[in-house]
Write a structure and sequence with these properties.
Elements (H helix, E strand, L loop, with lengths): L1 H23 L3 E7 L10 H15 L2 E2 L2 E9 L4 H13 L3 E6 L3 H13 L3 E4 L16 E3 L4 H14 L4 E7 L2 H16 L3 E8 L7 H9 L4 E5 L2 H13 L8 E4 L4 H7 L1 H4 L3 E4 L7 H14 L5 H20 L4 H10 L11 E2 L5 E2 L2 E6 L12 E7 L1 H4 L14
Helix pairs in contact: 2-12, 3-4, 5-6, 8-9, 12-13
Family: Belongs to the leucine-binding protein family.
Protein name: ABC transporter permease
Keywords: Amino-acid transport, Signal, Transport
Length: 401
Amino acid sequence: MKRILSGIFAAAFALGASAAQAQDKPPLKIGGILDMSSLYADITGPGSETAAKMAVEDFGGEVLGRKIQVLAADHLNKADLAANIARDILDNQGVEMIYDVAASATALAAGEIAKARNKIIIFNGPGSIRLTNEACGPYTVHYVFDTFAQANVTGLAAVKSGLDTWFFLTADYAFGQDLEKDTSNVVVKTGGKVLGNVRHPLNTSDFSSFLLQAQASKAKVIGLANAGGDTVNAIKQSAEFGIMKGGQKLSPLLAFVTDIDSIGLETAQGLLLAEAFYWDLNDDTRAFSKRFAERMKRPPTSAQAGVYSSVTHYLKAVKAAGTTDSAAVMKVMKETPINDFFAKNGKIREDGRMTHDMYLFEVKKPSESKGRWDDYKLLATVPGNEAFQSLEQSRCPLVKK
C-alpha cells in the first residue's frame, strides 16, 4: 500500500511540476496594428482584433505549452506611429507575429521594422502591390488582396463590357497611387484609354472639386482609387451631383460590404467591384459570418475574414514546426496549402503573396435584396493564378528567375 501511495504521490508531483513548467512559459503574443478609430476602422479595426481572438479560441488558446495572447494597437493612419508601435511590440512586449496593419503606408513602415528583426508580419487590410514587390521580405505575407488583383478583376471586366474611357479619383498615398497605376495598365492593355486623374488627400470630407473634374472629363468610368470613408463619401457626393444619372459609371476599385451598407443600395446599385470574400458565398462563409456577427453585430469584411484565416494558418504552422522561430514557421506556412472558409487551395508564394480565388460582384438593386447585408450578386470567380501578379512579373528580390 505504501508503495502504491508513493507511486501516486510521485505521479501527482510530476504532473504538477509539468503544469507549473507550462505556466512558467511566456505567452505567445501576436500583435495587430490596426485603424481602430479612423476611416478604415470598419474594414479592419475592432473587427480584425475580434477575428484574431476567435482564431485563437478555436485553436484552443495555447500552442507548444504556451498561452496565446492577442494584442492590438491603433496606428491612427500614421506611418511613423505604425513603425513606432511595431518597434515597441517586437522589442519590448515580446510579440512574435504582427497581423493586419490596415493601410498601405502604415504597412510599408511596419514591414521594414519587422523585416529588420526577422519577424513574421501578415498583411490583411493593406493593398499596395509594393508589399510583395520592392518591399517584400522572407517573413512577409500579403494575404487578402492587392492593388494588382483589384485592378485586374474590376478593370478587365469593365473595359470588356465597353466601359473603355477612364478618369481616376485617387487617394494621394501609396495604396491609391498603386491602385491607379495598376488599373491604368489593365485599361490600356485591354484597349481602353485613361483621360486623366486627380489626387485627393487621405480622409477627405468634401469631394466636390475633384468630382467636377471627373465629370468634366466625360470619361465613361470614374475609377475610385481610394478606400473606406473616402470611397463612401465620394460615391454619396457623386450621387448628389447627379454623375451616375448623367451616364457616367463609378467603379470603386476597392470596396467592402461595410462600405456598400453605409452608402445604401439605392445609391450603390449596379457598382462593379472585386472582393476576396463575401459572407454569403457558401455554407462555410455563412457559418463563420454568423459567429462573427454574434460578436460584432454585422458580417465580416474580407480583411477581417482574412485575419481569422491567417492567424489560424500561422498557429498551425507553429505547432507543426515545434517552434516560433520565423524561418521554421514560415517554411511550414509556405509548404502547407490553405483550405478553409476563406480560401480553397490557397498558397503562399516565395514573394509572400497568398494566391486564392477572387470574385467579381455587382451590387444588387434594392428590389433584389432580401434584407440588410444582402448586397452582392456574383458575376465571376477568377482563379488566383489569373487574378494576382505572376511570379515572372514580380520585382521581389527573393524571387528566383
